[in-house]
Amino acid sequence: ETAVFQTPNYHVTQVGNEVSFNCKQTLGHDTMYWYKQDSKKLLKIMFSYNNKQLIVNETVPRRFSPQSSDKAHLNLRIKSVEPEDSAVYLCASSYTDSSGNTLYFGEGSRLIVV
Amino acid sequence: QEKVQQSPESLIVPEGAMSSLNCTFSNSASQSIWWYQQHPGKGPEALISIFSNGNKKEGRLTVYLNRASLHVSLHIRDSQPSDSAVYLCAVTAGGNYKPTFGKGTSLVVHP
Question: Residue A43: its chain B contacts at CB < 8 A?
Answer without folding.
Answer: 44, 88, 101
